[in-house]
Amino acid sequence: MRLSALYEARFAETIKRTAEVADGISDLKFTDAYRVPFQYSRVVRRHLKSAAFVQSSAGVMLTDLDGNHFYDLTGSYGVNLLGNDFYKDTIARAVGRVGELGPVLGPYHPVIADNVARLKEISGLDEVSFHMSGTEAVMQAVRLARYHTQRSHLVRFCGAYHGWWGDVQPGIGNPVPARETYTLKEMSDDALRVLRTRRDVACVLINPLQALHPNAPPPTDASLVDGARSAHFDKKAYTDWLKCLRAVCTEQNIVLIFDEVFVGFRLAMGGAQEYFGTRADLVTYGKTLGGGLPVGVLCGRKHLMKRFRDDRPADICFARGTFNSHPYVMAAMNEFLRYLDTPRARETYRDLEQTWNVRARQLNERLRDEALPVEVANMSSIWTVGYLRPSRYNWMLQFYLRAELLALSWIGTGRLIFSLNYTDADFQAVADRFVAAARAMEQDGWWWHPPAATNTSIKRRVLKEMIAHRLSANGNRATAR
Ligand SMILES: Cc1ncc(COP(=O)(O)O)c(C=O)c1O
Predict the structure, then answer these.
(1) What's the CA-to-centroid distance between 382 and ligand 1, angstroms?
(2) Who has the most CB within 10 Å: 146, 341, 369, 476?
């Protein structure tokens, strides 16, 4: 109730405006319902209301409609690599560069030529195609792999996100079964054996972000009914795995696709291929590559990118998209790519990993010193929060962090994304607030638990409560009839 009162006072205007639109925005309704484990969702929506608006950004801060200044840990879903001010400038310059042409689609603005040259260089691949989102770039990669191998199935690994297209999202969230998708266990000899023995595998999709939590789905707070969320990034082990995979794909003529929509440009200038020292046949990029505008890009080997056969004119592999190669997007992309060539960019990438590893270590030391049951794990500037005590309420931390003016995306503490313009002083401020939030949560008693409780016993109990709830709801419905 203390926290609830604080929200009502501190975020009053932002909450009011959110409530006014909430009923008409499907995305907001969904994220609001799934921000926390479902069984707590209704009570949270009543007492810790969503505040979905911000009015401005500057440096590493976001300002809401009440004038609160938040540190931005949302990273705009990963788009914000270099700081919001960078993208504002990029977009403004892009508008200036292609303004004379305007939003003409079909014929290209000449700026596209430099993008293609730079992307070929960065990816080490021969051809490029432009799309409007990461999801579409992945769709096209898989379609081309199927076309050229004349095999039906794609392989993805447990938990990996590749956008919301049906074939890469079997199971929950997709009302139609994905019949031509195999989901295999990552970093496993069994998976390699499957690839060696099956004859219908066209391609293997890798999302290198999974290296932080192999075989687990993106860590949202919605699944946090206990404390069992673990993450640990082992660069050497993942590098070894990718090399094995590369070898098997080469041996079996399976197309290896790196989906770098999230991690491309974040781990290294040359993306995951450079960072893990392994080459793919097709690579998808997106997010930050658009210079702040929506984009998806596919780079690939020449023979795989071809969409027709010289000897069979009717046998084509179709791909279009009204807004692909939009002049404004191409110009913003060009600003982003040209920035990578500057000494300032090279300086940013130097010691990048080390900087973020040290920061994570320092925060963990502070949490440990205060005996707070939380820790962070990171893959460079992508972080996730882990919980050391079995508790039904670990998901509450996202609300304490918000109270300390740390802005998270709707999946909560599962993913914190830093932009690379965070200075040491900015980071110290975030660390102070993070520790203060965890301390407040401890003091408010959310980490109390019966001494015998384990993650398993909590999960079992929550499950029983859910079943009981479902049965009583069914019973009530039957009586009403
Ligand atoms: C690895 C990966 N692939 C594909 C996508 C889909 O990109 P978009 O949201 O632009 O469609 C995402 C988005 O988060 C992603 O992280």
Answers:
(1) 15
(2) 146
